[in-house]
Design goal:
- The chain has about 120 residues and is mostly beta strands.
- It contains no helices and eleven strands.
- Strands 2, 4, 5, 6, 9, 10 and 11 form a seven-stranded mixed β-sheet that branches. It has a four-stranded antiparallel β-sheet with strand order 1-3-8-7, with no helix packed on it.
- A hairpin with a 6-residue loop joins strand 4 and strand 5.
- The chain starts with a strand and ends with a strand.
Length: about 120
């Protein structure tokens, strides 16, 4: 089992920045990690993914150029740097782990492990 714990969410004004962290514990293998988000009344959507060694990343079109995903395998932690935040970025952000290390899937069903989520609220 892999346990994932997100942190770093909060309230921010539009145009500001936040950095989310996702710490893994348990069977911390070199999994692909991803961030998804879910806004009230909407389905969960893909945000970004990074493969096991950081060589491959993928982003949703809505965040490309504003968000950066990275990882520190020595710390078993994945980060999501969010810049130029917009009110439409408001959501609960979830960290997820895929047991397949090389792919960067945008499909939530490919991810076996999930964190509890952290709330990000962006005010206009």
């Amino acid at each position: 089992q892999v346990q994932l714990a997100e942190s770093g969410g909060g309230l921010m004004q539009a145009g500001g920045s936040l950095r989310l962290s996702c710490a893994a514990s348990g069977r911390t293998g070199m999994y692909t990690k991803a961030w998804f988000r879910q806004a009230p009344g909407k389905e969960r959507e893909f945000v970004a993914a990074i493969n096991w060694n950081g060589a491959s990343t993928d982003y949703a079109r809505s965040v490309k150029g504003r968000f950066t995903i990275s990882r520190d395998n020595a710390k078993n932690t994945v980060y999501l740097q969010m810049n130029s935040l917009k009110p439409e970025d408001t959501a609960v952000y979830y960290c997820a782990a895929d047991v397949v290390a090389w792919r960067t899937s945008s499909t939530s069903g490919d991810y076996a492990y999930w964190g509890q989520g952290t709330q990000v609220t962006v005010s206009s």
